[in-house]
Amino acid sequence: MCPRVEEVSPCGRGRSEPSGCYDGLNYAPVRRVKACLMDVLYHLLFLVIAIGVLVTFHEGGHYLVARFGGVHVVRFCVGFGKPLVSWRDRRGTEFAIAALPLGGYVRMYDRRDPDAAAHVPADPRLAQLSFDRLAPNWRIAIALGGPGANFLLAFLLYWLAAVVGVTTVVPYVGAVAQDGPAYEAGMRGGEQVVAVDGRPTRSWLDVSLALADRLGDTGFIELQTKVPGGTQRHGIAIEDWLRGEDDPNTIEALGIASLRPAVIGDVVDGDPAAHAGLEAMDRIVAVGGTAVASWEQFAAQVAAHPGERIDLAVRRADAEIIVPVTPRARTDAQGAQYGYIGARAGLAKHVVQYGPLPAIGRSLDETWSNTLLTVELLGKMVTLTVSPKNLSGPVTIAVVVGDTARAGLGQFLSLLALLSISLGVLNLLPIPMLDGGQIVLYSMEWARRKPTPARIEALVTRVGLAAVASIMLLAFYNDITRWFL
User: Fold this and answer.
1) What does the DSSP 8-state code read for residue 179?
2) Mind telling me the catalytic residues?
3) How far apart are alpha carbons 73 and 67 in whole angstroms?
4) Which of 172, 222, 262, 282 has the fewest Cβ atoms within 10 Å of its own Cβ atom?
5) pLDDT, position 32
6) First and final CA of the chain: distance in angstroms?
7) Which of 203, 238, 62 is nearest to 139 (CA)?
8) Of 1-15, 65-79, 231-245, 280-294, the least confident
9) Distance of CA 419 to the CA centre of its chain
10) From CA 113, how far away is CA 135, in angstroms rounded?
C-alpha cells in the first residue's frame, strides 16, 4: 500500500508546493510518512471490516446448521489466536473475537478431541449427540452451511447495493490503437460499451469482469457499443487470449483506452462558465456546431475562440440545450491568446438504482453470473490458462477494499458481495481442511456406510494443511512482488 504514496504531493494531499516547503512543524518527508501511515491504517480498517463480515456469516452458517442438527457448539470464534473478548450464552457456547483477523472457526463437541471431557454440555440431551456421532448427511449439511451463508450474504449485499444505488463511471471508449484488435473490428473511439458477449456493462468494472471470463479462450469477443443514432456490434477475434500472462490488462489488450468525456465537473464562480449557466454533469456534445467527444477536444475548441461567443450544445439529463458562452481571453507564456471559461473536467457517471422488488432479480443475476465467473477463473488457474500470479493475498484485498470504500457505499457493498462469492467458492474446493474436502470425506463415509479410518483422516488432514499453506504462501508472495518489489 505504501507505494501509492507516490501519488501524494511532496507537501501533502491535493497540494502542489515546492519540495523544500515548510509548513509549521511538518517537513515534507515527515508528512509523506504520515500520509503513508494513514493510508495503511485506512486500508487495514476496511480489510478488517470486510473479513469480519465475511467470516462471521461463513461461520454463522456452520453454527446455525450445527445447532439445528442438535450438536453443541463449544466455541464460535472470529479470528485466530488469543481471544481479545469473549462471552457465553445460556447454552454454554463461547463467542470470541481473536487477535489475528484472517479467518475464524466453529468448534463443536466431539468425543474424539483430547479435551472433550472439559466441554461436555450441561444439557444431558446435547451431551448424547457429539459431532462424531452425527450421520454423514448431517455433517455434509454443516460443512455446506458456511459456503451457503456466503452465497446468501452475496445476494443480500447485491440487493442492498441495488437499492442504495451504485455510482459508476460510464465506459466510454477513447483512443483506439490502429494496430489493435478493436480497431480491426471497426471501433474508432467515442463509443459507449453497453455489453460484452451479451452481458450488460454499466461501468468499466463490468467490462473488465466480462472480459476476464474470456482469458485463454479462442474465438470472438462481441462488444456491443452505443453511438449517436443506434448501437453497433464488433466481433473481436482472439486466440489463446492472454493465456498465462501475469496481471493481464484485458481492456488495454484490445487496443482501447478509456475516454475522458466532455463532462463538466464543476465551474469557477465569477468565470464565463458560471455566468453562462453551465452546471456539474453537463455533457458538451458540440461547440459552434462542431461535434466533440472528449474533454481535450472541447478544451481545444474553447481555447481557439478567445473573446468570441460560441454556442455549446449541452446534454443535461435527457434534454439537449444550447448554452452561449464567451471565453475570456488569456495570454500564455509565448504571448499567444487562448480562450478560458473556468470549467473543470468531470467524469461521466450514472447511478444504477432499483426499487426493492426489482432489486431481487438484479441481485439473483449478479450472484449467479459472478459465481459462474469465479468458478471458471479458478478452473483456468488450475489448468494454468490464467497465471497463478493473479491470486491475490491480504495486501491486494486491503488496497482494493479501501479504494472501493472511498468510491461509495454501493460499490463497497458490491465488492463485499464479490468477495463473499469468492470465499464460498474457494471453500467448496475438494481440498482437505476446506469445507469441500470435508464434504468429500463425509460423502465417502456415507457411500461406504462405515467411518473413515482415523489414520486416513489424519493423512488427508496433513495433505490438506500443506495444500492450504501453499496457497496462502503463493498469495503472500504475489502480494509482495506486486506491491513491494
Assistant:
1) T
2) 59
3) 7
4) 222
5) 64
6) 12
7) 62
8) 1-15
9) 7
10) 18
**Contact (Cβ atoms closer than 8 angstroms) between residue 185 and residue 235:** yes
Question: CA quadruple 35, 36, 40, 43: dihedral positive or negative?
Answer: positive
Amino acid in position 448: R
Helix (H) or strand (E) holding 253: helix 250-253
Alpha-carbon distances of 472 from 224, 226, 465, 466, 481, rounded to whole Å: 39, 43, 11, 10, 14
H/E element, 350: strand 349-352
Distance CA 26, CA 125 (A): 66
- Backbone φ/ψ region at 15: left (φ over 0), alpha (ψ -120 to 50), beta: beta
Instruction: State the virtual CA torsion across 127, 128, 134, 135 in degrees, nearest 10.
Output: -170
Calpha distance 91→347 (Å, rounded): 55
Q: How far apart are CA 223 and CA 230, in angstroms?
A: 14
CA angle 366, 433, 382 (to 5 degrees): 55
Beta-bridge partner residues of 316: 319
With H, G, I as helix, E, B as strand and everything else as coil, classify residue 358: helix
The backbone torsions φ and ψ at residue 439, rounded to the nearest 5 degrees and listed phi first, read: -60, -40
Closest by CA position to 88, among listed 127, 44, 51, 119: 119
Q: How far from the centroid of its chain's Cα atoms is residue 212's Cα? A: 13
What are the tens digits of pLDDT across the range 64-92?
999 998 898 999 999 998 889 999 998 88
Beta bridge partners of 319: 316
For residue 313, count other CB atoms closer than 10 A to its CB: 18
> Given a cut of 50, is residue 7 above it in pLDDT?
no
Q: DSSP states of 296-348 as a string? A: HHHHHHHHT-TT--EEEEEEETTEEEEEEE-PEEEE-TTS-EEEE--EEE---
> Looking at the chain, how many residues does it have?
485
Number of CB atoms found within 10 A of residue 72's CB: 23
Distance CA 236, CA 472 (A): 36
CB 239 within 8 A of CB 207: no
Query: Residue 10: which of 19, 21, 1 has the closest Cα?
Result: 19
3-state helix, strand, coil in the chain (%, to 5): 45, 25, 30
Tell me which residue of 174, 268, 150, 203 sits closest to 408, measured CA to CA: 203
